[in-house]
């Protein structure tokens, strides 16, 4: 499978079908992927809408598969989420992400790292202690880390999820609602969760210049978040005109291909030194 190059960063081939009979072998490959060091974190910049300066990065996992080439998370995370493998992946991402973030801060790069959690993580009562251990080992300041959760991942078992989120938040870590607007949940959890941020899903953001109802939803979400004292990030910003409109709407942060693609760590560091 070919690795394309786009603006210097590797792009994976989305034609690989995780639902084909191949998925069974993929599943067994996955259990070895971690030990064989085939997983890699890419980092996508998150910038302030007001002045374009970097504020953070999101860690997005990639799998350098020995046979299939570079695989994106949509091609293996859903498979992992059906088993406990996802918990091993999450811990690896946290270990790797915390180390990298500590390194950035040691070299004077003051950025916040966002890490994705999945539904099974929010049902794992051992997660807070595991995170606490990795925090101690890496010397990370929890204020540098935001954990992204989705509406649907909370709703699997809201009471259990809430307890785990509270314990992690009590250590000083921040929480964000990812893909906001795509879940089925009510708004009541918004006030009961210790949140810092809402991330408006790409499906609402990408068309705000052409689709009036998307523009209305984005505007309402920004106001709702601000009235609740939360920051708002728009995902999937692909052009300057969209960024300008988000600026008029008072959106705080933006992420998207127009600002920067997910990049391997060395390329991300290079990007930061050019965009500071
Ligand atoms: P997500 O958390 O919503 O991450 C944003 C996705 O949107 C990423 O896809 C990113 O590459 C893509 N994206 C960013 N800007 C743009 C843009 O301007 N246009 C378009 N079309 N796409 C954009 P990616 O890396 O393929 O990740 C897909 C999903 O996989 C993520 O969605 C997240 O749910 C999951 N994922 C990624 N890494 C991890 C991880 O370490 N752990 C867990 N549990 N899930 C992960
Ligand atoms: Ca995310
Ligand atoms: Ca998202
Ligand atoms: Ca998504």
From TrEMBL:
Source domain of life: Bacteria
Presence of the UniProt keyword Translocase in the record: no
UniProt domain EAL: residue ranges: 23-276
Keywords annotated in UniProt: Membrane, Transmembrane, Transmembrane helix
GO molecular function: cyclic-guanylate-specific phosphodiesterase activity
Designated name of the protein: Signal transduction protein
The organism of origin for this protein: Amphritea japonica ATCC BAA-1530
Upper lineage: Bacteria, Pseudomonadati, Pseudomonadota, Gammaproteobacteria, Oceanospirillales
Shown residues in whole-protein numbering: 267 to 542 of 542
């Amino acid at each position: 499978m070919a690795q394309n190059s786009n603006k210097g960063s590797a792009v994976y081939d989305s034609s690989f079908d995780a639902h084909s009979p191949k998925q069974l072998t993929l599943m067994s490959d996955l259990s070895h992927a971690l030990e064989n060091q085939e997983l890699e974190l890419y980092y996508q910049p998150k910038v302030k809408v007001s002045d374009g300066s970097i504020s953070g990065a999101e860690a997005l996992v990639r799998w350098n598969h020995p046979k299939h080439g570079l695989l994106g998370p949509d091609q293996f995370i859903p498979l992992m989420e059906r088993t406990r493998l996802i918990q091993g992946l999450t811990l690896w991402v946290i270990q790797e992400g915390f180390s990298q973030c500590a390194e950035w801060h040691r070299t004077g790069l003051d950025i916040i790292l966002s890490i994705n959690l999945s539904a099974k993580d929010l049902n794992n009562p051992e997660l807070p202690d595991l995170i606490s251990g990795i925090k101690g080992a890496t010397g990370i300041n929890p204020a540098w880390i935001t954990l992204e959760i989705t509406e649907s991942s909370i709703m699997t078992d809201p009471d259990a999820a809430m307890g785990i989120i509270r314990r992690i938040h009590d250590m000083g870590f921040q929480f964000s609602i990812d893909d906001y607007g795509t879940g089925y949940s009510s708004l009541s959890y918004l006030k009961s969760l210790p949140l810092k941020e809402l991330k408006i899903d790409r499906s609402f953001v990408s068309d705000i210049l052409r689709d009036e109802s998307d523009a209305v939803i984005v505007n309402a979400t920004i106001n709702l978040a601000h009235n609740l004292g939360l920051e708002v990030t728009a995902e999937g910003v692909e052009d300057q005109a969209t960024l300008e409109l988000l600026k008029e709407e008072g959106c705080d942060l933006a992420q998207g291909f127009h600002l920067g693609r997910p990049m391997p760590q060395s390329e991300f560091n290079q990007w930061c030194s050019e965009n500071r």
